């Protein structure tokens, strides 16, 4: 028996393999189900009883040596492969680029607006996006049956008449909170997100951003407002910019106006952005209605003030000639990347 097993042991001891394929051949030959060892184990029963012990010991020796060899060569081949890969690494190749993040165009525009107004003494005031009926509508002089109070226009969370709770439809609600909690002089800017029940299109969205401005003091006039807004328009759109105020209506201002700036694309000559009028509408404004002052605990006999509100998306679209409002909320990096330098 020994003469049969000894050569196998020697073969295993001498065996070497450089590739996985060679090693696999070895495994199949000795250790597989139909391999030499399986055959030797099953031959055990034909061995004479007095020789069985010795036979068993030799077969076990062969098995241990074969298994040991297999695992030793496996590690050897893997290590060789790793070091080959390490050699393949070319450290002179350019690295994968890392793209730094950039600010969102809405944040860039908002920060620019805040910066311009902060230079003339405006500070920033915040208010909640979930607002009650009083702050969003009633205190701002909206009549009870005003269309903005309709389900069709506003996202209500609870609709219970004067106790309704809704997503704010404009940042004008922050005016009320500021006036209720502060004494004049008041000079604040309130940027934030607002919500309206609108069908989403290139020109409208169910949420967008506004910046509200409010200035209350003794003797504040329409002329003060006009000069402040002219200063803003020139800082924002360029020093040659002109403005015009068209009469308008808002429940919370009297008189009310809409402000246009000369088109920043064609400089007032007429183009498809300004629909060949040379003018672009950028905000609503007016003198704070005495009813609003009174609702907020400010004496309208002593104080006057102006307010204005503008859409941040609209300003960003005009500044960068963006044609579709939806781009601002789709998070397409190809769009957002273009603002990286700002
Ligand atoms: N709240 C108005 C809107 O959402 C914008 C506005 C107009 C704000 C006139 C004002 C203002 O403060 O005086 O359309």
Topology:
Elements (H helix, E strand, L loop, with lengths): L1 H13 L5 H12 L4 H7 L6 H40 L16 H14 L4 E2 L5 E3 H4 L19 E3 L6 E3 L4 H10 L4 E10 L11 E11 L4 H16 L5 E8 L2 E10 L16 E10 L1 H6 L8 E8 H9 L12 H4 L6
Parallel strand pairs: 1-5
Antiparallel strand pairs: 2-4, 3-4, 5-6, 6-10, 7-8, 8-9, 9-10
Helix pairs in contact: 1-4, 2-4, 5-10
The structure holds 3,4-dihydroxyphenylalanine.
How is this structure best summarized?
With 342 residues, the protein is of the alpha+beta class.
What CATH first level of the largest domain would be assigned?
Alpha Beta
- Spatially, the strands of the biggest sheet line up as 1-5-6-10-9-8-7
Please report the total strand number as a whole number: 10
% residues in beta strands: 15-25%
Question: At the fourth CATH level, what is the homologous superfamily of the largest domain?
Answer: Bira Bifunctional Protein, Domain 2
Structural class, by secondary structure, is alpha+beta
Description:
The protein has helices at 2-14, 20-31, 36-42, 49-88, 105-118, 133-136, 172-181, 222-237, 290-295, 312-320, 333-336, and strands spanning 123-124, 130-132, 156-158, 165-167, 186-195, 207-217, 243-250, 253-262, 279-288, 304-311. The chain is of the alpha+beta class and 342 residues long. It folds into two domains: 2-88; 105-339, BirA Bifunctional Protein, domain 2 (2-Layer Sandwich), CATH 3.30.930. The strands form two sheets. It has a seven-stranded mixed beta sheet, with helices on both faces. A three-stranded antiparallel beta sheet has the order 2-4-3. α1 (2-14) packs parallel to α4 (49-88), α2 (20-31) packs antiparallel against α4 and α5 (105-118) packs across α10. The protein binds 3,4-dihydroxyphenylalanine.
């Amino acid at each position: 028996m020994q003469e049969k097993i000894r050569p196998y042991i020697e073969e295993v001891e001498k065996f070497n393999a450089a590739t996985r394929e060679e090693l696999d051949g070895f495994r199949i030959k000795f250790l597989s189900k139909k391999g030499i060892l399986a055959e030797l184990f099953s031959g055990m029963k034909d061995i004479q009883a007095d020789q069985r012990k010795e036979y068993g010991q030799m077969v076990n020796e062969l098995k241990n040596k074969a298994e040991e060899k297999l695992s030793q060569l496996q590690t050897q081949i893997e290590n060789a492969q790793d070091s080959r890969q390490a050699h393949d690494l070319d450290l002179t190749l350019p690295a994968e680029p890392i793209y730094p993040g950039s600010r969102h165009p809405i944040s860039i525009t908002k920060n620019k607006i805040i910066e311009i107004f902060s230079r003339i003494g405006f500070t920033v005031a915040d208010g909640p996006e979930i607002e009650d009926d009083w702050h969003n509508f009633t205190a701002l002089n909206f009549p009870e049956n005003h269309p903005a109070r309709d389900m069709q226009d506003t996202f209500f969370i609870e609709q219970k008449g004067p106790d309704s709770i809704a997503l704010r439809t404009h940042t004008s609600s922050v005016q009320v909170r500021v006036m209720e909690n502060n004494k004049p002089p008041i000079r604040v800017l309130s940027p934030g997100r607002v919500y309206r029940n609108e069908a989403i299109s290139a020109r409208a969205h169910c949420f967008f951003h506004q910046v509200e401005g409010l200035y209350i003091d003794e003797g504040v006039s329409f002329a003060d407002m006009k000069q402040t807004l002219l200063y803003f328009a020139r800082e924002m759109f360029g020093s040659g910019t002109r403005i015009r105020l068209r009469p308008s209506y808002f429940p919370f201002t009297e008189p009310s106006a809409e402000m246009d700036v000369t088109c920043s694309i064609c400089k007032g000559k007429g183009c498809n952005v300004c629909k060949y009028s040379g003018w672009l509408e950028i905000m609503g404004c007016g003198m704070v209605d005495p009813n609003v002052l009174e609702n907020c605990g400010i004496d309208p006999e002593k104080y006057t003030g102006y307010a204005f509100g503008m859409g941040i998306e609209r300003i960003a679209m005009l500044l960068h000639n963006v044609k579709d409002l939806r781009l601002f909320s789709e998070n397409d990096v190809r769009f957002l990347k273009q603002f990286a330098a700002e």
